[in-house]
Amino acid sequence: MIIRLPERFIYSNKGHEDGAYVENGILYMSKYTNFEDLMYTITYVLKGYDRCCYCGEKLSMKNRTLDHMYPRRWGGVSIPENLLPSCKKCNQDKKDMTYRQFQEWRKLATQSEKEKYYQQTLVRNLGVARRGRFVIKRRWLSSYEFENVAKYISFNRLSDRKSKLVSSYYRNWGQYPHPVIVSSNGWVIKGLHVLHHARKAKKKYVMAIVLENVVVYDKDTS
Ligand SMILES: [Zn+2]
User: Fold this and answer.
1) What is the CA(95)–ligand 1 centre distance, in A?
2) Where does 69-218 show beta strands of DSSP type E?
């Protein structure tokens, strides 16, 4: 997928002279860049940070958050298409409802109606997860054959805790907790633990979001 990018943008990387920048519609990011922080910054540049996108409340440093329109719990990832400046209260109220579901929830008058509606969304979203799918836009996803990339990856230093989380998620849902995120030049931005598991489970493909206008560069080798 092509993510939205500002026309001109420079992101400096703490502790490294190389960072990220946009040129001719392509985002170049060094391999040291913290992807989530970068996406948060880009989202604020694109969408502003003055008002909560749900209730219109003025945002300050204290109550400013970025909401995942498709929640992390259902595979929602941190890309500008999935992030919205929101106040803390709305973000908390939203829990793990999607953007649309939360809009409906907000229209309800009483607390008991809201609670009932929330439970319904939970059942629905769990149903999707149980069928081994993510509650995100299908057109963001592609099936990714990872073996060509995986052979260049060293899996030795992965954290055991995250590996266990991925395994237990897979056992319960027959799916991974989130899609893998890959740059256009095949750099795995997010999802090493997922790939590691998929490889052990002898799967050839994983569901991925391939960022076609993002390039990860490695200054050390170029
Ligand atoms: Zn709000």
Assistant:
1) 13
2) 83-87, 142-145, 180-183, 188-190, 205-211, 214-217
